[in-house]
Amino acid sequence: MRILLTGGAGYIGSHTLVELLANKYKVCVVDNLSNSNIEFISRVQNITKKEFKFNLVDICDHNALSKVFESFRPEIVIHFAGSKSVKESFDNPLKYYKNNVFGSINLLNVMDKYSCSKIIFSSSATVYGNPEYLPIDENHKVSPSNPYGHSKLMVEKIIKDWSTTYNNKSCILRYFNPIGAHESGLIGEHSHDHPNNLLPIIENVFIGKENNLKIYGNNYKTPDGSGIRDYIHVVDLAKSHVAGIKFFDGTKSSDVFNIGTGKGNSVFEIVSIYEKVAKKNIPYVVEGRRKGDISESVADPSKARTKLSWKAELTIEDAIKHSVNWKLKNPNGYNN
Ligand code: NAD
Ligand code: UD1
């Protein structure tokens, strides 16, 4: 089976690439390296000792993408490429609508041109907005509260219409909060810009790049007052894509799945686990709530368990152990 990965050099894409190669799929990566580096491609080769193709191509470039399809003829596309910062999406919404929405439409057009009829799409729990009940199942209403979230929901809808109209197949995965790294410490989360997510910031405090962690709010209605999230090990998340490929063997044409653990941890709990695993103090200051933040987000992942035969296996301690290992080995990302 030939699988094309857009954004396959990125954080989730590179971990998924490892799992696909371990499962003997033929893989081709398309990435413009806007938020990654060719070094991660070499490192995946190092981990897997397997061959795969890489093309430095922007998904918005119809001609360049067509050439890749012409030569590789993918049967399935796993679509990670896109921009993912909520903060940046408030400052530059058009970048998000161009890269995420236009880029996806361009990709679907090229897929049509080459009769590729199956797509797995990286969506986000951010499409649910502020939850009305917990844990969040796939029937929860969608109500994103930022341009990034709007762009993700738009692409979900476009893909759904595309599958229905042309009798194509789609599997939409709504990721909760991916953290951790490959146990080799060779690949992990990297961002060209200053990170906004919790774990990459704690990692920076751990190696002394930042003085302290700012905890955004201790007055939420949670047991310790800090925000609660469903943190999932990136390797478990990567494996959900292999499960997604098998979903296409079934009769259903299009479906959406939460990809999370079903368990929540607060910011204070994460700091405490990190300190225990890293054997180092993580200094913090409590600040006011961050714009757009919600109190709690925890997945009901039972649909993925029943219909994809997938569930998260690794623990939060595993994820943090691998995050510490990644940062110790790569204090400056790929450029040590
Ligand atoms: P990432 O930035 O590490 O990976 C995205 C990759 O896509 C990068 O390698 C980047 O260079 C590439 N890319 C971006 N625009 C491109 C374009 N126009 N053409 C070709 N390549 C392009 O991000 P990630 O964390 O691996 O996220 C992957 C996907 O998962 C994204 O679509 C993101 O919205 C979604 N997602 C991520 C999270 C998260 O917390 N990391 C949560 C929910 C959903
Ligand atoms: C953020 C995005 C969300 C996106 C997700 C994964 C916002 C408002 N939301 O979600 O749309 O899908 O990342 O990319 O940006 N925290 C701190 N200090 C920090 C950073 C975070 O206390 O320096 C807290 C947050 O308040 C939150 C928790 O840590 O309670 C997790 O934050 P983060 O990793 O940014 O994820 P989300 O808020 O879930």
Rg is 19 Å
Q: Tell me, what's the shape? A: globular
In the CATH hierarchy, the architecture of the domain at 2-180 and 232-260 and 299-313 is: 3-Layer(aba) Sandwich
* Distance between the first and last residues' Cα: 36 Å
Name the CATH class of the domain at 2-180 and 232-260 and 299-313.
Alpha Beta
Output the number of helix runs.
11
Model regions low in confidence, pLDDT < 50 over at least 5 residues: none
Q: What fold name stands as the CATH topology of the domain at 2-180 and 232-260 and 299-313? A: Rossmann fold
Q: What string gives the helices and strands in order?
A: EHEHEHEHHEHEEHEEEHEEHEEHH
Main beta sheet strand tally, sense and closure: 7 strands, parallel
Beta content comes to: 15-25%
Helix proportion range? 40-55%
Strand sequence of the main sheet, in spatial order?
3-2-1-4-5-6-11
Main attributes of the structure:
336 residues; globular; 18% strand; three-stranded mixed sheet; single chain; binds nicotinamide-adenine-dinucleotide; binds uridine-diphosphate-N-acetylglucosamine; alpha/beta; seven-stranded parallel sheet; 11 helices; Rossmann fold
